Amino acid sequence: MDARDIITVGMSAERQITVALEQTVQHFVPYMPAVFATPLMILEMEMASGEAIHPALPQGWVTVGTGVDIRHLTPALVGQVVRSTSKVITVEQRSIGFDVACWVGARKIGDGKHLRGLIDVAAFTARFKDW
């Protein structure tokens, strides 16, 4: 399957979460401050990216993350609402590129680029049956 047949530049999505203590760096490293953990910010960016294109995918096909180039600019505190945005900027045969960002209100807390690869789930999982 060629992603260019089903995915178009400009497809987008956004999602929101309210930062919980379990999503802070302090939850994982007790001596660190209780601010939104960078890996979980990146996860939200990846989730928004997947949601931007998933409705266009045929049954049995998904996308998986293949690359991130992200900056974490400022903290988000417990209880703050983080809005993650993602927009398709490139489409190749099996690779989709996204502009991603996270916001608390009008303040950008992170941004960057994300890549996702298009896969046939059955073919992908069959490769690992003997591992």
TrEMBL record:
<dbReference type="InterPro" id="IPR025540">
    <property type="entry name" value="FlK"/>
</dbReference>
<dbReference type="InterPro" id="IPR029069">
    <property type="entry name" value="HotDog_dom_sf"/>
</dbReference>
<protein>
    <submittedName>
        <fullName>Thioesterase</fullName>
    </submittedName>
</protein>
<dbReference type="InterPro" id="IPR054485">
    <property type="entry name" value="FlK-like_dom"/>
</dbReference>
<feature type="active site">
    <location>
        <position position="72"/>
    </location>
</feature>
<feature type="active site">
    <location>
        <position position="38"/>
    </location>
</feature>
<feature type="domain" description="Fluoroacetyl-CoA-specific thioesterase-like">
    <location>
        <begin position="21"/>
        <end position="120"/>
    </location>
</feature>
<feature type="binding site">
    <location>
        <position position="116"/>
    </location>
    <ligand>
        <name>substrate</name>
    </ligand>
</feature>
<dbReference type="Pfam" id="PF22636">
    <property type="entry name" value="FlK"/>
</dbReference>
<feature type="binding site">
    <location>
        <position position="65"/>
    </location>
    <ligand>
        <name>substrate</name>
    </ligand>
</feature>
<feature type="binding site">
    <location>
        <position position="65"/>
    </location>
    <ligand>
        <name>CoA</name>
    </ligand>
</feature>
<feature type="active site">
    <location>
        <position position="46"/>
    </location>
</feature>
